[in-house]
Specification:
Blueprint: H1 2-17, H2 34-37, E1 39-46, E2 56-64, E3 70-77, E4 86-94, E5 102-107, E6 111-120, E7 126-130, E8 137-141, H3 148-160, E9 169-170
């Protein structure tokens, strides 16, 4: 646990250090229904960095608190399905209340990073989260899988926003048979 906490703290520092935007500002969706956004999201693909590299069965979860803030926790297994599930927690809040599409997430009460909702399905079946630097990105879905056509369309829109889509890697969400 100590090793993982060190990795997460280093990741937070990395997020903060790499917050310089590359290119024009990312465009978030026009509006997010925060209540509908709550719940569990499977990480279908991401731009891997050391804290999420080689993880399987990854889930981002959100729960709205009475004070309006959002409890955020991430569960995963590393490096295989046989490993126990691990978890770390964070605190999030809506930063841009006009759209609800720009949040801040604080890890271990130390580092706060931007969380931009770039794309969301009208039925909240999938969502795409980015970071101003374009060095981090997540494609998430409510289910363990996503139709390939939907995935390719999302990558196309990310490319239009200046992301290098070749950096996205699918995260195993279904155990091998």
């Amino acid at each position: 646990m100590k090793m993982f906490r060190s990795c997460v703290l280093a990741t937070c520092a990395l997020f903060a250090a790499c917050s310089t935007p590359s290119g024009p500002p990312l465009k978030t969706v026009k509006h997010v229904d925060v209540a509908r956004y709550m719940g569990a999201w499977r990480v279908i693909a991401n731009i891997p960095y050391f804290a999420e590299k080689d993880c399987v069965d990854t889930v981002e979860s959100y729960a709205l608190r009475k004070d309006g803030r959002i409890d955020n926790w991430f569960t995963y297994r590393r490096p295989s399905w046989d490993d126990p599930q691990k978890k770390f927690t964070a605190l999030a809040w809506v930063h841009d209340r006009a759209t609800n599409a720009e949040w801040r997430v604080r890890f271990f009460g130390l580092v706060t990073v931007p969380y931009l909702i770039l794309d969301v399905d009208p039925n909240y079946r999938w969502a795409v989260v980015g970071h101003p630097s374009r060095n981090y990105g997540w494609i998430m879905a409510r289910e363990r899988t996503m139709p390939e056509k939907t995935y390719r369309e999302i990558l196309g829109r990310l490319g239009e926003q200046g992301y290098d889509t070749s950096r996205f890697v699918k995260v195993p969400q279904v155990p091998p048979r």
